[in-house]
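Dear all,

This email documents one entry for the complex benchmark we are building for the journal club exercise. For each entry we list the sequence lines for every component of the assembly. Then comes the predicted three-dimensional structure of the complex as a token string, followed by one or two observations. Please use this as the template for your own entries, and keep the labels exactly as they appear.
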Amino acid sequence: MVRTALFLLLPIVASIALTQRRRVAALIGMGLFSLVLSSVYVLQNAPDVAMTEATIGAALVTTIYVLAIRRTGRLIVVADEAPRLLERRGERLVGLEYDILNGFARELGLDLSVRFVPPQAVKEALLAGEADIAAGGIVRKSDPRFYATRGHLKTALVRIHRGTGSSPEEGYEGYFSDLLSSVKGGEDLAATLDLSRFMEVMHNDLTDFKIERLPEEREYSFLVSREREDLYVKLEAYLNDLASRGDLDEMIERNLQ
Amino acid sequence: MKRLSFPLICLLLTASFCFLIAQSIRLPGQQETPSYVGELAERTGALNLVASVYLDGRLYDTIFELLVFSVAVLGVRFYLSERRSSHRPAPIPESHVVRASAEALFPFLLLLGVYLTAYGHLSPGGGFTGGTVAASGLMLCTIAIGATAVGRRIRQATLERLEWGLPAAVIVLAILPVFLGRTPLAALFPGRGGGGLFASGSILIYNLLIGLKVFIGAWVVIHGFIEHRGEI
């Protein structure tokens, strides 16, 4: 009776393992399959084979796979925090770009891992191969070192300026949170911000700032290293798919309203 | 529904196939052990019949199994040496719970591995199983404290020499009886029975050599991956 039940359990566990999208879950399913198989061997009076199956199938192979997917099982995104696009809210990550990238990671069967760095370090991290994708309110601009995906949201650039010094061509110094505290603290500063960050800055008193909106229309996009063409093609296809299904508009509405 | 129908049919077919197998296999029950296995067990003094078969009666097969394992390890090392990576990503930090439990579990797993290897002729187990158990313990440690830290505790050069020395020792041990006027692959130290640790002569030595070989081989493979593809 037990033997028949275990025999029937084998294809069920195998199907569960095969249909998992997350690699870790599939791996646990595989280990479970080995354990059930090992129990079958015990009931078949083959304890030696059962032991070998349990140690190799459930322990050793599972461990080796765990070691392998620790590197390859995650989609690493490097980003500078951008309000409503990719930001921390308590323990959670939220935002439009988070939703897009999380869906993309799930489609690839990977776990999304986001690393926040200052804006200057984003591109360096991507070039050094420490991350797969750069995100966090990156305004599309042609750069021969990267593939830029299709724009997922329209934006514009705004120069803000207080005190001496001139606005940089792009971005600001340090983390965005530092910029916000400088604005609140009344320090002299000059920065070029995209709409997402500018709207966050607008919550403060900007009366003594000089504000200039640059005329051209811009778009937010993701960056992928030139060495990862396969990933770029997949991400581009995923974004096109999202847009054609109307899911992208729904995500924008949910995150930006 | 259409997408699900194919996997469902496959699942049903496999389940019914497994059910039929479960119904058709009958346990040996009252069947008598074939006489040659009984004779083998008597001659070697091993209580584990399986061990007496694969380390005495079919030692020839086991030697080749060991060689296949050695060639697999060699293959991993050979192909990895061509793919040396200059870029070394930083190790992934592991949580304290995993580190502490891995360090605590390792000695017990090692002990279990040694026990399974040494008592392979008396109870289920043997060199292959024992070596794998010990190697799993080492890999658990590798996950927890990093391969470089584990590598520092192990003398790599000695391991690499031992790795080929062990199968060579098994082959020499199998050929030596020829010089004593016996047939090749006969036991160098015949078993004397009685069910003790040293009851089955050569089988204990073979088990220990194979256990050590499997343990080292598993470590060499994992260390090779780390050496050439970056810390894990």
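Observations: DSSP finds nine helices and eleven strands in chain A. Chain A has three domains: 2-72, 74-151+219-256, 157-213.
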